[in-house]
Amino acid sequence: MAVPKRKMSRSNTRHRRSQWKASVPTLVKTVENGRTVYSMPHRARVVEDAQGNALFMEYKGRRVADA
Question: Does residue 5 lie within any of the structural domains?
């Protein structure tokens, strides 16, 4: 395991940590059956019935997994 040779100052530690930022996910807006749905591109989406129960997962119009 790597061990630092010298103590890192508080200022340098905080400057290093401040560079890590969360990025906003890119969402795609689509309208399905009159409802506006936001989804992430290139991800499988869950297909639900009228009551909201998950039926299966779909990607590019194909069924890829059972939910």
Answer: no
